[in-house]
Amino acid sequence: MSRIASPPAPPALGPRPQLEVRDLELVLSLAAAGSTAGAASTMHITQSAVSRALAQAEERVGARLFDRAARGVTPTAAGERLIAGAGLVLAQLRELEREVAAPAAATTRVRLVCECYTAYRWLPSAMASLRRTLPRLEVELAVEHTQDPVGALVRGDIDVALLTTASLPRAREGGGALVERPLFSDEVVFLVSTAHSLAAQGSLTRDHLQRSPLLTPSASPAEVRWFMSAVFGRRKPRLESLPFPLTEAIIDAARAGMGIAVLSEWIADGYLGGGDLRVKRLSSGPLRRPWRIACRRASACVADSLIAALQSSAPRLTPRAG
Question: Which runs of consecutive H residues, i.e. helices, occur in the chain?
């Protein structure tokens, strides 16, 4: 007699995760906005609801995820770990849903550019990871449009742009086909030589920035306006600035004690191993620069996948100041 083979046993499911999808969305919104009020606006709920949801998420995971302060919220070490994985988990879940609904869907190709070159420090690696986790989405970096990402969007030369200071045009000027959403923020930090007179300072004041040359990359007028507004508010002090076209030149000038280097955390991170530079922050708190993702309306669904993946891909610099 022949035997009928028994069907294979289903795979063991293991313990049920305590965190829910809404918890992952919450921590990503808080990380991007930097405050409960900003996250509430993004998630279209009240600020008190955000605070309650964060407390519940922390209870479920068994760890404090954000430190609260008057100026906003800052991820703890546990929060950074959760943020690093939350975006990809959500992106993979969305991709799984799409594959189940349309298993024969064709590959989607988009062209992407960044307004600020600092993102190219980590973006190619993020794109490689994205191809592994979202195989139906192919992203091409269109670096030739870095100087005018909004114009390239309006013309249709690219599909998606990561923006810091550039504004989308009004509808009658070609902006009607474009949409934008908050993405994340990076921190602008200050580097000084260990021999600099400010090296012993725990943090920098606005007066320190006025008394020492600032070593900066070549910046657009919009970027300069953002920096002045974020640091000095309505005051418009005269600053001595030494712009350099290359990051290595900025770092070498800082090491030589020529002034204070002003760089994104993404760039600064790669130059701190020698022990000859000190990272400083403002005494008023971290200087965070908001990023937005803009796209043509036809690419809005693709932008959702990119938001989820990129929010967990941007590196974070958390050195001790001083």
Answer: 21-33, 36-43, 47-61, 77-101, 123-133, 149-155, 206-211, 221-232, 247-255, 265-268, 300-311
Strand partners, 292: 163, 182
The tokens describing 198, both together, are 């400010």
**C-alpha count within 13 angstroms, C-beta hemisphere, residue 305:** 26
pLDDT of 107 reads 73
Contacts of 291 (CB under 8 A, 6+ apart): 119, 162, 163, 164, 182, 183, 184, 185, 186
In residues, how long is the chain?
Answer: 322
pLDDT at 192 (0 to 100): 95
Residues 45, 145: Cα–Cα separation, whole Å = 36
CB within 8 A of 89, min separation 6: which ones?
24
- Cα 17 to chain centroid distance, Å, stands at 27
CB 281 within 8 A of CB 204: yes
Query: Could you read off the pLDDT of 113-171 as tens digits, one per residue?
Result: 999 888 888 888 777 777 776 777 788 889 899 888 999 998 989 999 999 988 888 87
Rounded Cα–Cα distance for residues 246 and 156 (Å): 30
Task: Identify any residues that bridge with 204 across adjacent strands, giving them in sequence order.
Answer: 282
Structure tokens at 267: 């760039």
Question: Per residue in 248-260, pLDDT tens?
Answer: 999 999 999 999 9
**Cα 215 to Cα 243: distance, rounded to the nearest angstrom:** 6
Do residues 196 and 257 lie in contact, with contact meaning Cβ atoms separated by under 8 Å?
yes
- Taking the C-alpha atoms of 312, 314, 318 and 321 in order, what is their torsion angle to the nearest 10 degrees? -150
Q: CA-to-CA distance for 144 and 166, rounded, in angstroms? A: 17
